[in-house]
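Posting this for the archive.
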Amino acid sequence: MMMLCEDEVKYGARFVGRQAEQAILTECLYSDQSEFVAVYGRRRVGKTFLIRYVLEKHFSLFATGLPGGSYRDQINNMCMAIVQGFNVDYRPCNDWMEVMRYLADTITNDVSYKYRKKVIFFDEMPWMDTPKSDFLMAVEWFWNAYASARSDIFLIVCGSATTWITNNILRNVGGLYGRLTNQIYLEPFSLNECSQFYDLKHISMSREEQLKAYMIFGGVPYYLQFLRKDLSVAQNVDLLCFAKRGPLSMEYENLYRSMFKNFTSHIKVVEALATKSMGMTKKDICDMTGLPETGVTTVVLQELVDCGILNEYNQVGKKTKGKMYQLVDFFTLFYLRFVKDNKGVENFWTMNLNTPAVNSWEGYAFEQVCFSHLNQIKRALGIAGISTKVSSWKSADKENGAQIDMVIERSDKLINICEIKFASADYTITADYAKKLKNKLMAFKEETKTKSSLHLTMITTYGLKKNALHNSMVQSEVTSNCLFNF
């Protein structure tokens, strides 16, 4: 087991979450074989920060791809990284194979690292792969013909262009097929981790305010770092998103440009899905955007799913053909709903709090917070160990109009029908609302033909106000406090 020095313990206390990911990197560092690990995930989620935090003191080589750099720029940059990392003489290289041979020769001849792993970190790797560069072929040679035959190399690859990592490393069908020894998909912070982050930054926020911040920024550490402790959440939002030249005013455009080479199709998809809270089928998306109903659009959808921008699910009782795609990236949803048409409007957010438009958005955004904390909901319901499938549901009968926020299909032949309500106080089930709930349950039972028992579950901010209707209809409750659990 690795022992930490006092300085590392103190520094470790300033790091939020990522325990499992830290453990994987540490195990690879001290394993008795060469390791090849891909770290991927949404832009701004903290991939490089994690790797540097755990491994920076052990780096033999840290090379970062140059955004927009030419073939020659990328090669020269890598050669200089070898010089700086290993303190060797510069060797001019004409192509990537020569670069990788230069790296291999340097490692072979280096005696200062004889008894520990050579940690090789390629950050922003997709930028290195310029058109017709044969970069990937050279990396394949380095790993297959050299590194994998040794026991002292730890190769880590990472990049914001998640689809490049996914298609060329994780799903590689050539020389790198099955060569990864491990992979880390880095997700945004949970509410619990965000709460730890706020404590670290001395930001005082009620849990309701933390929920509202999550509805806008998700758990993306890069966004959260801009929050000022002397301002309210609403004031921070105005400063970051709506103010002229605010730190996040251009983030929407930068986000998609950095993740996808041909980003216009991806933006068309997310902007179409932003208009449909429960999602759309591929056919519906193509009808709205004009994109072809072919494999090209399927690739765009899969890339957005891989990056965590979209969620895909099958509605209860429907086959793969009816697969739904739903926009779940919090910042994108917020930007398209409010920022896009109001950028530069001073104090827009603080002036529009508690308006019908904002209240409606809060209801939907809270649903997405719940979907992103399914493990916490399952633990609150006591079904953490039960296999489940989770989706939304909408009646095919347009006149009926019934829809259900969350459906949890359980392997024990029971279905939790979840109603999700965001409110600033205890939520009251009125007679009219009780009638709508009964209609939803009846429509769901009839249309899905399910033989499973249905349990009505209410997920609310502060809980339900107890009354006769509550006692007769609701089998279980979950409050927003449960979402903050680890």
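The longest strand covers residues 403-410. Residues 1-13 have pLDDT under 50 and may be disordered.
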